[in-house]
Each structure stands twice: as C-alpha cells, then as structure tokens.
Specification:
Blueprint lengths: L5 E5 L3 H13 L3 E5 L2 H10 L4 E5 L10 H7 L5 E6 L15 E4 L4 H18 L14
Parallel strand pairs: 1-2, 1-3, 3-4, 4-5
C-alpha cells in the first residue's frame, strides 16, 4: 500500500465492526474500530482517516456529536452511515454524512464501497483538501 488509506468504523456491534474491519484490511485499507461516539471522536483527532463508517444508531451519541468532531477533523474525512431500513438518519446532516449504505448489502459490498471511497480520497488529496467522488449515492 503506497498511500496510507485508513478507515474508522464506529459501531456498538463489535462483531459487525470486526467483520467490516477484516474485509477492509484484506483490501489493503488500514482500519480502527470504536465502540461509541466519544472513543471515535478521540481516535479521529489522533489519526487521519479518509472514511469514517458510522453504524447507526451510534452508542453514546449524546456524549460526542459526530457532526462536531467529524467537521473538525483535518483533513476532513468522508463519513458514511451504515443503517437498517428502520433506523433514522436524524440528527445527521447530509453535508457531514453525505453517503448512506443500507445494512441489507452483504459485508463484502459494504467493504468494497468504503475501500473505493478511501482510495479515491487518498488519490485526490492535495493542497486545499481532497475532491472526493463517492462510491455510492446517498
């Protein structure tokens, strides 16, 4: 891996987080896992991520608002919401979380979408920040 693509997976479901993380690592993407919003916020400020995957609903969301910590990360990562059919996106704004992936997709597809987005972000990063083409629409 010549670039340093890195993804943060935020999920209170440890099995799901590990499964997505393992699939990303197999694709050559570095991956960190956080079980709740405060831990994710701390990691986001310790490292640079191209993509943050938010498995909704997020544990301890009231303790660390993702819109605040994602917006303050430099460089700012692309945030992806992974959600079930009945899980609301609120209170996440589209300018902070521009991409949603339905949980009904198999994990290989989820990992491929996230890996493609991370690679595109890393390849386009430059002065003034990256111009990102999302791997899937909202």
């Amino acid at each position: 891996m010549s670039r340093s693509e890195r993804v943060l997976v935020v999920s209170s479901d440890a099995r799901l987080a590990r499964a997505v993380g393992e699939r990303l690592v197999r694709r050559g993407i570095g991956c960190d896992l956080a079980g709740d919003a405060p831990r994710a916020a701390a990691l986001c400020h310790e490292r640079s991520y191209q993509v943050i995957v938010l498995d909704l609903p997020i544990a301890r969301l009231d303790a660390a608002d993702p819109q605040t910590w994602i917006s303050s990360c430099r460089p700012r990562p692309v945030a992806v919401a992974l959600k079930g059919a009945k899980t609301p996106l609120a209170p996440l704004r589209g300018d902070v979380v521009p991409m949603t992936i339905d949980r009904s997709y198999d994990l290989e597809t989820v990992a491929e979408l996230v890996a493609t987005t991370a690679r595109d972000y890393a390849a386009r990063a430059g002065p003034g920040g990256p111009a990102v083409t999302l791997a899937a629409p909202v």
